[in-house]
Amino acid sequence: MDTPARHDAEAVLAETFACPPAVATAINGKAHLRDYPAKAVIVACDSVFDAVHVMVAGNARMQAFGLDGRLVAVEDYARGDLFGENGLFETERAAHDISAIAQSRVAAIGNAAFLDLMANYNCVALAVSRRLVARLSKITRRMVEGATLSANGRIHAEILRQAQAGTAMTISPPPVLSQLALKVQSTRETVSRAISALEKRGIIRRDGQGLTVVAPHRLEELIF
Questions:
Q1: I need a surface site. Which of 44, 88, 152, 171 has the fewest CB within 10 A?
Q2: Could you give the percent of the chain with pLDDT greater than 90?
Q3: Cα gap 204→166, rounded to integer Å
Q4: How far is 18 from 22, CA to CA, in rounded Å?
Q5: For 14-27, what is each residue's pLDDT tens digit?
Q6: What does the radius of gyration of the chain's CA atoms come to, in whole angstroms?
Q7: Distance in Å from the first CA to the final CA of the chain
Q8: CA pseudo-torsion sign 154, 155, 159, 165
Q9: CA triplet 222, 183, 48: central angle to 5 degrees?
Q10: What is the largest CA-CA distance in the chain?
Q11: CA distances from 140 to 113, 144, 152, 193, 219 (A)
C-alpha cells in the first residue's frame, strides 16, 4: 500500500485508539491494509476471526436473513469502527458475511499481534473495552425496542437517534430508506409511509441536504 494510504491509516488508528503518534505508528506497523469495492465480502460467513479489522475508510455491514426471508442489518461499521475482536480470546467464526457497502479500506491486525498491542499499550486495551461496552449497549437497546416497540416506534426511535448524533438535529445526508428499513427490521414501504406522515405533521423537514427533526419532543412522544 502506498505511503499516503499508510499515513491516512495511521491517522485513523490514532483517533480510534486515542493514542499518541508513536503508538499509532506501532499499530500501523502491525496492520495489513486492503481495499474492497462495494459489495465485496470482507469476512465470509463461517470463516474464523483471525484478525481485528479497523475501518479506515468507507462503510461495511454485517447482514443476516430473518425467518421471514427479509434481510436484516446486524451491525454497521464506519471509519474507526472495529470488528472481529470477538476472536481474540477464543476461536470464533463469523455468523454472517461482513461486506463493504461502499468502496472501503480496512486495516487488519492479526490476533496475536493485537493481543501484544493490548498488553503493551493501555490505550489500545481501553479502546477495545469501550467499544465492546458500547456494542453490548446497542444490542440490548435493539432487543428491548424489538420486544416493546411497534415498527413505527422503531422507525421514530432510529430517526431521533440519528438526528441527535448529527448537527442541529439533522441527518445529513438524508437516510436511505432501504438502509433505515434494515436497521429497524422493517420494510422500505413502512419506513417511507412513516417518514411521509412525520413530514405532513411538521415533525420533520426534508430537503436535498438532509432530514431535520423540527419537533424532537413530538417525535419522542410517538415512539411509545
A1: 44
A2: 66
A3: 14
A4: 12
A5: 999 999 999 999 99
A6: 19
A7: 50
A8: positive
A9: 150
A10: 56
A11: 31, 6, 19, 27, 22
Using CA atoms, how far apart are residues 17 and 124, in angstroms rounded to an integer? Answer: 5
For residues 212 and 162, the answer to whether their CB atoms sit within 8 Å is no
Contact 210, 173 (CB under 8 A): yes
Q: CA–CA separation, 71 vs 60, rounded Å? A: 15
- Cβ partners under 8 Å of residue 3, min gap 6: none
Q: Is 56 exposed, middle or buried (0-12, 13-18, 19+ CB in 10 A)?
A: buried
69-86 pLDDT, tens per residue? 777 777 889 999 999 998
The values of phi and psi at residue 207, to 5°, are -150, -170
Separation between Cα atoms, residue 2 and residue 5, nearest integer Å: 5
Is the N-terminal amide bond of 173 cis, ω within 30° of 0? yes
Residue 90: CB atoms within 10 A of its CB come to: 7
Question: Three cell numbers at 180?
Answer: 433505515
Nearest to 121 by CA among 22, 196, 38: 22
Residue type, 194: A
**Which of 68-72, 131-135, 175-179, 181-185 is least confident?**
68-72
Task: Indicate whether 68 pLDDT > 80.
Answer: no
Per-residue cell: 62: 454485517
CB 47 within 8 A of CB 94: yes
Lookup result for grid cell 455468523: 95
